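Exercise 7.
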Amino acid sequence: MSDSTLTLTHSVRHERLALGLAGFFAAASIRAADTLLPALSRDFGISAGMTGVAVTSFMLAYAAFQLIYGPLAERHGKLRVIAFALLACAAANLSQSLAPSFPWLVVLRAMAGAAAAGVVPICLARLGDTEPLASRQGLLARYSVATICGLMTGQWLSGLIADTLGWRAVFVLLAAGFAGVAAVVARFVRHDESPARWRLASPDLRPNAAALLRSAWVRRVLGMTLLLGFLCPSVFAFVATYLKLHFALSLAAAGAITAMHGIGGLLYAGLAPALIRRLGRRRLAWLSAALLGAGMTSIALGHHWLWIAAGCLAGGCGYYVVLNAMQTTATQMAPMQRANAVALFAFCLFAGQGLGVLLAARLVDTIGIPALFAICAVLVALLVLWVSRQLLQRLEAAPP
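Solution. The predicted structure, written as tokens, is:
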């Protein structure tokens, strides 16, 4: 092996480590507010359901700005856009720590969502550029370890910090983390060849996000993604609130239990290559539907917080099975404009989550959280089975 090959290998390895750090902090910022909802309800004097608006504003802004970051990444380079987005995340999170009122916090959460939109989806597109399809699902599963750990840390540590230093300190720490990772990612910008390809390509051959929507397959994948976001991760945003109000747990304890959703994802990420090889994608899809349905049912019917923890564990594992398959499909929908394709995928996933949280917030104040999970248990299991049927044949037949 030549010295240049060794250098390239080390460079790619270090770049992926930097992208993992970026994904960690972006994921932590996405779910940090979930555990803070009871504290926000207390400090600002609003109902538990109303606090969900802070989650919705983040998700909808996160979704909307995918339509901006995708084309920017195609033209100016994925790594450059990721570094810029990380700096914007640092500024937005610092601003949230200074929010004087709940309406201001909602606005600043939207700004944070707009900034974070340029991190994980563009990281996935960059990973897709540097890994063939045959091994990409395994790589994306390993990358999800970073984002899942970020989700868990955001959910648990935000509650612990809120109980000791107050909820504003959570956003100060996130801002510091984002600033540090931005400096690391910026070192790899010169390795991204996307800007050069854009300049050399003729105008007719340059990436065009609107052209993607002409494909019936792309529209179908995006529709399935929207439904998945609407039915699944949106309702898990209220688990910490349920634990706080129904079981009188501390925010730290509620965050730790909610983080079991991430533990389930880590279990899948660690076992993904073996599960895909032993079970095959079709039986793995059935397992995903069963785990999601059982997990949500456990949360709906559980009379002890241990049942809630078990439900989060099972639901997290089931969710990441189907999410991993859909992420892999998204990176292969349009290989010549992967940033646009993954950005549209993320737009639909988080638009679904934002709208789902908005509807779930209304149902929380009317039918209650257990009934909400009972309804979603049935709907999401049926959805996963339908999605898997649509994806499997296409994914297995795709060229590497």
